[in-house]
Amino acid sequence: KIKGLIFDLDGVLVFTDKFHYQAWKTMADELGVYFDETINHRLRGVSRMDSLEIILERYEGPDLSLREKEKLAEKKNEIYRTLLESMTPDDVTKEVRDTLTKLREKGYKLAIGSSSKNAKFILEKVELKDAFDAISDGNNITKSKPDPEVFLKAAEYLGLPPKACMVVEDAEAGIKAAKKGGMYAAGIGEAAKSINADESLKTFSELLDIVDK
Ligand code: G16
Ligand code: MG
């Protein structure tokens, strides 16, 4: 029996992927590294430093030290944070907001399970922070998705065993993480096609129909 839901942030509740793309693209252009939407797709749900490594697969310049890589990641984050400043509550659909409210009214515990270190900042910008009982994000984990750590922490914060939790994800790495953590996995968007997902959602509000099943 499902008692809690754990939501991925980017790609499920908000669409910050366009900002991630823009920020990485600016950095890649400066480095002279080829980067496009297809490569960007591989960055979904992946941590900042792991994302940088994926982009650097096409880098042909001199070897970069860890410090130089950290500088590049910091630079990307500065550009990304500036883009996030433009977000408002209108960046969350009514469907998402209403569904979260109804799930809570039904008695479900709700948490965020995001790889992002900017999760709290984003939730504040779109005024969604109060919709959740717990937030597990890039700041409280050591291993990024597909490792289940971020979701296991979210379940722990909710005080629920993993098997009583349903994870809602748009990325394959996130679906894999949920399954490895012993949770029920619902795919939306790109991850709705995942063969590893237990449920595939065409719309966000469909959650209300499948969660009690
Ligand atoms: C998000 C994005 C990833 C991003 C990661 C880390 O994860 O999908 O593309 O690389 O967070 O973000 P930051 O650089 O802000 O720490 P999620 O798990 O919310 O989909
Ligand atoms: Mg995501």
UniProtKB/TrEMBL annotation:
Pfam families: Hydrolase (PF00702). Its cofactor is Mg(2+). Keywords: Carbohydrate metabolism, Isomerase, Magnesium, Metal-binding, Phosphoprotein. One of its GO terms (molecular function) is beta-phosphoglucomutase activity. It comes from the Bacteria. It comes from Ruminococcus hominis. Its EC number is 5.4.2.6. InterPro entries: B-phosphoglucomutase_hydrolase (IPR010976), Beta-PGM (IPR010972), Beta-PGM-like (IPR051600), HAD-like_sf (IPR036412), HAD-SF_hydro_IA (IPR006439), HAD_sf (IPR023214), PGP-like_dom2 (IPR023198). It catalyses: beta-D-glucose 1-phosphate = beta-D-glucose 6-phosphate. Transmembrane segments: none annotated. This is Beta-phosphoglucomutase. Belongs to the HAD-like hydrolase superfamily. CbbY/CbbZ/Gph/YieH family.
